[in-house]
Design a protein that fits this description.
single chain; alpha/beta; TIM Barrel; 7 strands; about 15% strand
C-alpha cells in the first residue's frame, strides 16, 4: 500500500533545539507544499523546568489556519542511564499533550565498547515500550555524531551489529505494548554521517521488527524548515517495507488543530 503522508516528529523554535525558521505558521505552509496531510509538533521535555515552554506551542496551535491536521505531542529523553522520563500523568493532564514519543539520546558509556553500547540501547528501547504513557519509540540506533567525535570512538556504521535476539525481543515488546517504532528520516535515513549502504541495512533491521508484528510511525525530526522535506525519505522507506495498514501508526484522537484554511 502507499504510505500515508504523515510526519509525527517535528520541532519548533520554542525549546531552542530547532532554529528560528521553525515557526508553526511556516511549518504548516511547508507541510502543505510537501503534501503532508497530518503532522505533530513534538518538542523536547527533558526536564520539568521546560514544561511551560510548551504553552507557547499551544498558543500557536490556537492561531494557525491550515488544511493540515496538526497534533500536540512531546518528545521525551531519559534523565540518565536506566532512569525514567520527566513525564507523568499529571504532566499530561496539565499541558494536554496528545501523545508522547521518546527514547534514548546518548550512548551512556565512558569508554568505547560496541557490545555494551548496543546492550544499553536495547535496554532503553525496551524500557520505552514498557512506559504506558509513551506511544512511539524514537529513532532506534541513532547516535550523536558529536558524542562519538569528542570521544574519538569509531562511528556506529551498521545496524547489522544488533543481535537478532535483541531485534526479535524489541519487535515483540513493541507489538505487545502497542508502542510504534519510529522510521526517522533525519536521524537515520538522510543522516550524512552514515556510510553508503546504511539505509539498506537499516531496512533489514526494520523488516525484522515488522516480522514480529511491530507497528511503525514516520517522522522527519526536522529542526530547520528545509529539512521537513526529509520526510519523503521516510515515506519511501515505508513503501519498501510493504507494511500493511494495521502496522502504520497514527494518533487515535482528533488533531489539536487544522483541517481548515
Amino acid at each position: 500500500m502507499s504510505c500515508p503522508h504523515h510526519d509525527f516528529h517535528i520541532h519548533t523554535k520554542h525549546l531552542k533545539c530547532a532554529d528560528q525558521t521553525m515557526e508553526l505558521s511556516a511549518i504548516a505552509r511547508e507541510c502543505e507544499r510537501l503534501g503532508v496531510t497530518c503532522c505533530a509538533i513534538t518538542d523536547h521535555l527533558n526536564t520539568l523546568d521546560q514544561a511551560d515552554l510548551h504553552l507557547l506551542i499551544r498558543a500557536d496551535l490556537a492561531e494557525v489556519v491550515t488544511p493540515v491536521h496538526i497534533y500536540f505531542g512531546v518528545e521525551l529523553n531519559f534523565t540518565g542511564c536506566d532512569q525514567g522520563f520527566a513525564y507523568g500523568r499529571e504532566i499530561v493532564d496539565r499541558y494536554q499533550f496528545q501523545f508522547a514519543i521518546g527514547g534514548i539520546h546518548s550512548a551512556y558509556v565512558q569508554e568505547y565498547d560496541l557490545r555494551k553500547i548496543v546492550e544499553i540501547q536495547h535496554r532503553h528501547h525496551l524500557a520505552t515500550c514498557a512506559d504506558p504513557l509513551v506511544q512511539v519509540l524514537v529513532h532506534p540506533y541513532w547516535f550523536s555524531k558529536g558524542e562519538f567525535e569528542r570521544n574519538k570512538w569509531p562511528w556506529f556504521a551498521s545496524p547489522r551489529v544488533v543481535p537478532l535476539t535483541f531485534i526479535r525481543e524489541l519487535g515483540q515488546a513493541a507489538r505487545d505494548t502497542g508502542t510504534a517504532i519510529e522510521i526517522n528520516a533525519g536521524a537515520n535515513l538522510t543522516n550524512p554521517a552514515n556510510p553508503p549502504g546504511y539505509v539498506d541495512e537499516y531496512l533489514d533491521y526494520m523488516a525484522a521488527l515488522a516480522a514480529e508484528g511491530a507497528a511503525f510511525s514516520v517522522g522527519s525530526d526536522a529542526h530547520t524548515l528545509s529539512r521537513l522535506a526529509d520526510i519523503r525519505a521516510a515515506w519511501a522507506f515505508v513503501e519498501r517495507l510493504r507494511l500493511p495498514p494495521e502496522q502504520i501508526w497514527q494518533p487515535a484522537m482528533a488533531p489539536a488543530c487544522g483541517g481548515n484554511g
